[in-house]
Every structure is written in structure tokens, then in C-alpha cells.
# Entry
Amino acid sequence: MRSAAVGVKDATIPSVQAFAGLQQERQLSLVLLSKAGGVDTAALRQQHARTDESVTRMKAAFTDLADGAPQDIVDRINALTTVLDDLGRHRAQVEAGTGSPQEVYDYYNSLLDAGVALISRQARQVPDAEAGQSNVHAVTIFQAADWMSRGATIGSRGLLNKAFTPAERVEFVRLIGAYHAGVDATIPFALEQPRQQYDALRTSSEYRALLDLEGRVINGDTGVTDQQWRAAAGPVHEKLVAIAVRQVEDGTTLGLEKANSRFTAVLIGSLIALLAVVVGIVLALRISNRLVSRALVTRLTSLREDTLRLAQERLPHIVARLRGGEQVDVHRDMPPLDYGNDEIGQVADAFNTAQYTAVAAAVKETQAREGVNRVFLDIAHRNQGLVHRQLKILDKLEREEENPDQLDSLFQLDHLATRARRNAENLIILAGEQPGRQWRKPVRLSDVLRAAVAETEQYVRVKVNPVPDRALVGVAVADTIHLLAELVDNATAFSSPRSEVIVHSSAAPHGIVIEIEDHGLGMTQEERLQANAKLSNPPDFETMAFRGESRLGLFVVARLAARRGIKVELRDSPYGGTVALCVLPPQLVAPHNTAGDITETTQMPVRSFHDHHHGHVEEHPSFPLKRPPVVPPAVNPPPVPAVSEPEPPVDDQTNQAPTSDGKPPLPRRRKRQSLAPQLMQSDDVTHAEPVTGERSAERTRDGLAAFQRGTRDARLTDDWRSEGAPSS
# Structure
């Protein structure tokens, strides 16, 4: 700061004085070249001598400045020196009367422009903002004084020539306005002393006379003489230059004061910091000499590195292997730390004990988790087996029952058993295994959607829009049914009982898009973001259980989606509620013509018989009211031929007499009309004889004995559970 401030003071003030002399020389040179004259050569030569003296001082100052100045300052000094080298030639042309007025005017202007650019760039070198701004204001005031000098020069030429050319009049008006605007905009921000000088100038008679003459010349008054104009413009120009010089002096003084103040503060702070550092070094040396040694530090550093390596690398790796079910040799995979018997060795032994305790805890936790998981899976498989047997019995009863009321109750039990089967599969999925239901052949997408809806509690509220002719590969059918059933069940549970849940599906280039939309209250943005985060990145079941998560359905959906590469996302519905968007990837999609019939009871249960009598039932547009025979699920079952459901005979509906109110009667259920054509038997088939009670008991005994032997043998088979068969 000090160097920059001194450089500005030593170089700017001589420069301003030299440039002021060049401004006077420019005006006298142009007056001498005018037609009317008015200035003799002797007066011009005297001004040349004064200008040369100030230019010499300026060059000396610039020489000193260039030694430590930045390169851009040096470049501007060289540019100004180059222009100054041509000053003698223009002077000789003016004295000989052969110079062009416009050429001389342009040369002096370029010389002064180079000088203003130099001192302006130098003024900005002061690091302090206030001092640097003061120097910039000084340059602005001097530039305004140069504009005034140029206007005065053009005014003198016009007055001597008794007329202004149009270009001269425009330039004159522009320069007069520019210098007034520049001074008026800069003086309010100048320092106190320059402001006082300008206030005194504005109230002086010379300034008021100059303003009057400027207005008269601009308005074309021919009564103004060159002597009057120069007498008024000269003193005002000199005072403006003086104001600029005073602004430079006061600005550099301010910069020096701030530099001295900061230098003192930095010096005192440095001394204090140096003293603190010296004291700290002395104390540290004394303490270190008494407490630690180089060997001790080395041992502690080694202990720290070994401990961190065990805690951050080996221990997490061993715990991960234990959780994965691997056998771990602790002494081989995690050797103990040996650092002797002193205090450091005792610390190492403490670390060894902590590591072994952590591994033992991980082993016990893994064993407990495996035991709980085995119990968990055993219970789930037992429940699944019971549900399978229950569905088989219900299927038999449904085929043999003809009473509508009893058949309706059986259908309701069938539906409850189907939902119970899904809950049992939920347990198996949460335990990390795959449910037993599988298909070999692709299954139509329409059957998959019907199966998913049929497994939900409030299936009557679900409307399935038309389904594209696509099928799903067999390995993904069970998981897709389960995933969609969970989402549909969630949509019905969190929406009004009187509202519909709409299932829309469409084919897309990137697979199949299924949308499940409810008209419930919806979710908050925070809840939706958390749910989508779980769906895209399912957490561990232990983590959810530790946090007390109650919405296990989302966890099941996330697990199934991650297993099959299905993208599931929850969005706001434009009609209120939530839309669950499922995107089935192309690898799960198969052509429609390759699909076989679904082999499980996945159709929508029929409506209650009592609802028909009360007249509140509307035929569901998406599902048939008839139900095909229930086939017990099996692991990888063989292909089953498609079963079509024949329409009721025409004569059963049309040949009956209409009721009293003129409406056609309800269709009657005929025996075996739901069977496939290949299962229909002729009327002459002999029925089996009834089984006596004694024979039934014997068959029951033999069946239970065979079942017990089979389950005992199955427990000894390693791959029995991997096939997905339920436990007994």
C-alpha cells in the first residue's frame, strides 16, 4: 500500500502538470493555424519551453515507476513515450504554418488520451479501496478538464474564423456537456478539500462568465470574441486542473495513512504471534522430553494402525462372513495384537479382548438369527401346507355343492384361504426365500391381473381396464401376482369403501406399464418420498424390524420388485389419491400366443347369492361370475390344458316363462355346466358305489400312515425344502 501510494503521488502529479501544459500548447497551436490568427510564434515557443520542462519531470518519474511496476503499467508508459517522440515534428509544422489543424488537434488528443489511460491504470494499483477510489476520482476530474480544454480550443477556432463548421459545432456542444457532466458526477464523491475548491469555483465570476459565454456560443451569438472566450475559459481550466491535483495529493496521503496504520497493526500482530509460537515451541519441547520418546511414539503409532485395520477392515469382513453363513477361524483370520507386557501391551490386550467379544457377539447373533429364521420359515411352510390342503378340500366341496347359499359360503372361505396363502408367502419372502408357486409356461397378462385382484380382500371394488395381448414368463408369474396383489390390497385399504380402484395396463417399448389408482386421501410428499426410497432400495428386514416399521407390504413389494427387476413408484393421482406405477421389464414379457392357462385358483370369487336376491349387485366388467375348478398349487406343475367356460344353454334362458313383472327369469345353474368339454361324461357312465364307513376308516388309516412315512423320509432329503414343498 505504501509503495503504490508513493508511486501514484510521485508520478501522477508531474504527469498532470505536463498534460496541462500540453493542453495549453494544443489550444495555442490551433489558434496560430487559424485564418484570423491572434497568437504569435513567440508566445507559442514560451509555452513549448514550459511544457518541455514538465514533460522532463514526468519522464523521470515514469522511469522510477517502471522499475517495480506491473507489466501493463510499463506497456502504457512505453506507449506514451512513443507518442511523445513525435511531438517535435508537429511543433515544427505548426511554427511553419504547414500543419493541418485537424491533424494537430488529433495528435494532441491522442497524446493526452494515452496519458489519461496511464494515470488511470496507475490509480487503480492502490490496494486500499477508499484510497484507490479517490485516485480514480482525481483522474476523472482531470479528464473533464481535458474535455473543457478541447472545447475551448474548438471555440477559439470558431470565434476566430467567425463561423463553426457543422462538425465543429457538434464536437463543441458534446465536449461542453461532457466536462460538465463528468465534474458534476465526480465532485460529490471527492475528498473534502477538492469539494470545497469546486464550490468556490462555481460561485466565482469567471465560472459564471464562462457559463454565459458557452450558452451564447452554442446558441450562435456572433458578438462573442476570442479574447472574451479565452479570458473566461483559461482560469476555469487552471482551477479544474488544480482540483484534480489536490484530489491526487489528498488521496495518496489517505493511502499512506492507512498503509502506516495497517503496517503497525500487522507488525504488532506478527510480534505477538511470533512470541506465542516461540513460547509454544519451548513448552512443547520441555513436555515432550519428559513424557514421550521416539520409540514410544513409534509403538503407539503402530498400535493405532493395527487397531484401525482390525476395526475397519478385518472385523467387518468377519462379521459379514458370519452373517453369510460361513465358518470363521478367529485365530487365523484375526490374529491378536502383541505389544509386550508394559502399559502399551496391556492396551493392545484390551483391544484383543474387545475384538474377540465383538466376534463372539456376532457369532451368537448369527446363530440366533438362523434359528429364528428356521423357525420362521418352518411356521410359514406349515401354514402354506395347511392352506394348500384347505384349498384342495374347498375345491372338492365347491364342485360337489349345488346349494347356492352353501356354495356362496364355500366361495368366501376359498377367498379367505387364498388371502391366507398370500400371507404365508409374505412370511417366506420376509425370511429371504422364494414361495413355492411356479409356472413353466408363460401366463397371459389378463390371468395374472385377475389372479392378483382375486387375492385381495375387497376385490369387488377393483375395476380392471382392457389388458393388452401379452404374457409373462412362467418364472415371474408368482412374484408378479403377489406384488400386484399387495399394491391392490393397499389401494383398497387406504381409500373409501365406496370408491373404485382402477387397474390400467398398457404395452410400452420398455415393457408393460401397470397403473393401480385409488381415490383415497393420498400421501404427503414426505411419506411418498420415503415409500419410493424403500421401493427403489429395499432395506434389510432386521433394520425395518428394529425401527418398528408396520407397513411390511411395501417391504414385500420392494423385495419382489428387486428380485424381478420391476420398477415400482408411487405418484399423486390427478383425481385425488395415489397411483402405483409398475413397469415390467421386457425380459419378463412373452408373446401372447405362447401362454398356457394358469394352473391355480386365481379367478375372482362370485358375488354373494344373497346379494342377488336383494338386487344390489352389478355385474363386474372385468371378471366372470363363474369360477373354474380350483387346482391345488404345485412346484413347477406340468402344463394344464386350457379350460373354457361354456355359456349356459340357450334353451335354459329362453324357454322359461317370464315372471309376473315381465322380466326374464334368472338363469338356473345346471349340473357340470362349468366343466371343460373334455371332462364332460356321457349320461350312461356308471357312478361309483358309495363307500361304507368301514372302508372309509381303513382308507383313512392307510393314507395317514403313508403320509407320515413320506414326511419322515422327506425331512432326510436335503433338496426337499428347496423345491418349495410345504412342511407338515
User: Anything to note?
Assistant: DSSP finds 22 helices and eight strands in the chain. Residues 600-663, 671-696, 716-728 have pLDDT under 50 and may be disordered.
